[in-house]
Amino acid sequence: MKPENKNETLLLEAQKKLKKLKIFYIHLLGYIVVVMLLSYNLYIMAGPYKPFFQWFDICILVAWTAFIAMHGWHVFKGKIFFKRDWESKKIREFMETENQSKRWE
Fold first, then answer.
1. Which residue windows are transmembrane per the record (predicted)?
2. Measured at the alpha carbon of residue 89, what is the angle toward residues 84 and 94, in degrees to the nearest 5?
3. Which residues, 6 or more positions from 75, have their beta carbon under 8 angstroms from its beta carbon?
4. CB–CB of 54/42 below 8 Å?
5. pTM of the prediction?
6. Fewer CB near the terminus (10 Å): N or C of the chain?
7. Higher pLDDT, 62 or 3
8. Is the alpha carbon torsion for 20, 24, 25, 30 positive or negative?
9. Averaged pLDDT, 72-80
10. DSSP of 45-92, one letter per residue?
């Protein structure tokens, strides 16, 4: 592969990952809005159809929570929050920022 083609393929892969991440965050925002609305609906619910709508709202909440979890798993697969290198990288970053701030003292 030529270097230009390799850079182009890396750019395309990065753009695909960014698009997946962007779609996930839009999905997450919609989920949060719907959870707030359904929670409010559960709070104010009254009347003869209350048991049906409670059951229906809870089913929507459970199903959407499962879907958002699967979507997040698909987008963030293989990314663990605290890898072994994470601690050493953070220590290095803190040391660099501390050294930079003390240079002028």
1. 21-46, 52-76
2. 135
3. 20, 21, 24
4. yes
5. 0.67
6. C
7. 62
8. positive
9. 81
10. --STTHHHHHHHHHHHHHHHHHHHHHHHHHHSTT--SS-HHHHHHHHH
